Amino acid sequence: MKQWIQSWNLIRLLRLALAITIIYQGIDLEQWLFVAIGGLLALMPLFNIGCCGASGCSTTFSKSKQNKETTYTEIK
Predict the structure, then answer these.
(1) 15: exposed, middle or buried (C-beta count within 10 Å: 0-12, 13-18, 19+)?
(2) Which of 2, 45, 55, 63 would bridge with 15, disulfide CB 3.0–4.6 Å?
(3) Where are the alpha helices (DSSP H) in the chain?
(4) Using only C-alpha atoms, what is the Rg of the chain?
(5) How far apart are the C-alpha atoms of 39 and 62, rounded to whole Å?
């Protein structure tokens, strides 16, 4: 529990505060889509994940291809 609390930073707290604000405004205005979106946004700082989740945005590395030696012929 101590490690979980120590891993919080300012941006993570700000994201949680904004999500709670969106949830509150959604309840106040009876806009349930805002409540659902705020709930999803609140899960991100709680579980310490970003938009990409578990490296979902990473690109695959292509295998390096062996370059053939280029030969040039002189044209006169």
Answers:
(1) middle
(2) 45
(3) 2-6, 10-28, 32-47
(4) 25
(5) 38
CB-CB contact of 48 with 3 (8 Å): no
User: SS3 of 70, please?
Assistant: coil
Residues in the chain: 76
The amino acid occupying position 65 is K
Higher pLDDT, 2 or 45: 45
Give me the residue spans of the domains in the chain: 9-47
The residue to which tokens 């579980």 are assigned: 47
Name the DSSP class of 67: P
- Reference 34, options 49, 47, 19; nearest CA is 19
Q: What mean pLDDT comes out for the span 42-69?
A: 72
